Amino acid sequence: MDDYIFVVDVTDDRGFYLIKALQKEGFRAYVMHGCIINEGKKVYIFSLAKELELSQLEELEDNSVVFARVGDNKIEHLLQQRNIRQYDFLEDNRFLIKNAYITAEGALAEIIQRTKASLRDMPILVLGYGRIARCLTKMLKSLCAKVTVATKFEKEIAEAEITADKVIRLEDMHMHLSSFQVIVNTIPMIIIKGELIGLISEDTFILDLASKPGGVDFVEIKGRGLQAFHYLGVPGKVSPHTAAEYLKESLMRSLKEI
Fold it and tell me: Is residue 242 part of a domain?
């Protein structure tokens, strides 16, 4: 692994901390488009937020390694043709679990700051019960908030019943919306829209953690004067140092396979 040269696409502070973490362990690591020495096997690391684009593919050396999201069959085919091995951080379950914890921490801080109230006995609705929602629910419960989880999946219902104060089915959400001081969405599809928005109290804070386009109709929300925030890339904003360490761990695990 000593001959690897890490080339990092720095889109937020995680990239800078990742370079420092790699250099601290004796690896050669550089900012993409900066001054990079030529000898050695290149490992390119792109942002988690976007898929690899054709223009970026053209910058990669043959027989290299790339960590990036790829959703285009044409790009996959070109990677194979050029013998470029591709990995995706979002397919590493250990990384995703740790990253979810940081996201939940950031969400918790945002709730405290935006509501200006104690979490004790605060009625909070969490939509979905994936990795982030599970972490956040446990954090909120540890601070004595009153947490309701809404989901449509039987497995998630069973898991949420162990931790949350109450679990409701997503299709029954309309019967409960007016009673929450905070609503947190983690479902990556538009959930809070149309008539549902009219049922939400004007004092409710809505926090959307889902990837674009999110789970909230922000145009209509704004028209109703409700307070809502689409919070993306949370680990890179609240804990870039720790997030970079998790990226480095995932990198090392993947490269050991080669």
Answer: no
